[in-house]
Amino acid sequence: MSTAIVNHIQVGLKGSVQIPGDKSISHRAVMFGAIANGTTTVEGFLPGEDCLSTIACFRKLGVTIEQEGEKVTIEGKGWDGLKEPTDILDVGNSGTTTRLMLGILATRPFHSVVIGDDSIAKRPMARVTEPLRSMGSTIDGRDHGNFTPLSIRGGATKGIAFQSKVASAQVKSAILLAGLQSEGTTSVSEPALSRDHTERMLEAYGVEVKRDGLTVSVEGGQTLKAQHIVVPGDISSAAFFLVAGAIVPNSEITLTNVGMNPTRSGIIDVLQQMGANLSIQNERMAGGEPIADITISTSDLTGIEIGGDLIPRLIDEIPVIAVLASQAKGRTIIRDAEELKVKETNRIDTVVSELKKLGANIEATEDGMVIEGRSSLNGATVSSYGDHRIGMAMAIAGLIASEEVKIERSEAIAVSYPSFFNHIETLQSK
Ligand SMILES: O=C(O)C1=C[C@@H](OP(=O)(O)O)[C@@H](O)[C@H](O)C1
Ligand SMILES: C=C(OP(=O)(O)O)C(=O)O
């Protein structure tokens, strides 16, 4: 385990950073390539630990995958190309790998066992294992299949019309993937729109996907055709530098190659509503997803209320939004964000406890948090608790803290952003 030390920035952040590949899209590019027919090539892949777990699992399922940095080649042999693994499938820290892979395994006529790390072992899986069982798959595990280790024996499955209680792209994707190899139609309705990368990318792989408001459906018996996938930069990674640019005095930074999918871009809405100096340039398309470059500079911010349908559009950004809110005048209220409790950590608890150590005025609520700004932050020793987004949020707070901030378990950051500290250095040395 490592401890990172972050010091107060004296001169401001300047320059530009090319944002690394999107984690959600990188996972999907590999998984869909693995079940497609033919050779899929991926550029801009995120070589973060979570996406490497996806590659390792699909290799164990018999798929030949070559990966060198941001380039990946996947030799897909179709759905039937997946083979019964002789070893357990280890998803590491990745919820996306676990849930999407379960959707794929649910229709495969063989047995597999899925495990992950201590954090994965606490994350609820019944939200996918129950609907997949109702389609006809045999799944068991700890707490009747709610927690890893899970054992799956796929088989002949039938389509379902599933009403999800949560706006979760992982749930939606798992069921749709199973639906592609099930009898009849499979549909998923969600209470608010979650990220739609699965729908977009399945279409790119030649699958017919019907979308009607908050319902997505697919017909069974569909195969995928190999593709060349260009992965846009991850707006969830860009979020750390968007916040840094807004709160560190004398800063102006440009983030290039940022994915701007409207189901992901809630952080931009929040920054604009708080009054940030932000401009969006070079709007273009890459790999079926909108992308742009964003420039942000030091801003006078005002607190706002964040809730409702905006939450799924920024769910992973809430830890760093809490840091942002600590530097906005007045009160910021975050509500409807109970899902934070079932991420890599209970992110309501971990954000509130660690930001309090730095002197922020922040309190947890049942479904979010309330932050009063502006607070001068002090130095302290904090922990990521093994959660990459908590580690990075603390590092951004450290840039404006009066004394050094020590972040224990900082190695977790490599889960989604291995070059994070290099990028901070790049912006400091300009
Ligand atoms: O589908 C995805 O790639 C993801 C969906 C979200 O989770 P939920 O589906 O649990 O909301 C998000 O928090 C996670 O980081 C990635
Ligand atoms: C919640 C996250 O990822 P996952 O669910 O894939 O572990 C995240 O990256 O913040």
TrEMBL record:
Q: Does the keyword NADP apply?
A: no
Where in or outside the cell is it found?
Cytoplasm
What's a Pfam family this protein contains?
Answer: EPSP_synthase
Which residues are involved in binding 3-phosphoshikimate? 23-24, 28, 168, 170, 316, 343
**Enolpyruvate transferase domain location, by residue?**
12-423
* Binding residues for phosphoenolpyruvate: 23, 95, 123, 170, 347, 389
Instruction: Please state the Enzyme Commission number of this protein.
Output: 2.5.1.19
Keyword annotations of the record: Amino-acid biosynthesis, Aromatic amino acid biosynthesis, Cytoplasm, Transferase
* The reaction(s) this protein catalyses: 3-phosphoshikimate + phosphoenolpyruvate = 5-O-(1-carboxyvinyl)-3-phosphoshikimate + phosphate
Family matches, as Gene3D superfamilies: Enolpyruvate transferase domain
- Record-linked InterPro entries: Enolpyruvate_Tfrase_dom, Enolpyruvate_Tfrase_sf, EPSP_synthase, EPSP_synthase_CS, RNA3'P_cycl/enolpyr_Trfase_a/b
| CDD domains the UniProt entry points to | EPSP_synthase (cd01556)
Q: Where is the catalytic site?
A: 316
EC category name? transferase
**Keyword set includes Protease:** no
Subunit structure, briefly?
Monomer.
* Family in the record: Belongs to the EPSP synthase family.
This protein's name: 3-phosphoshikimate 1-carboxyvinyltransferase
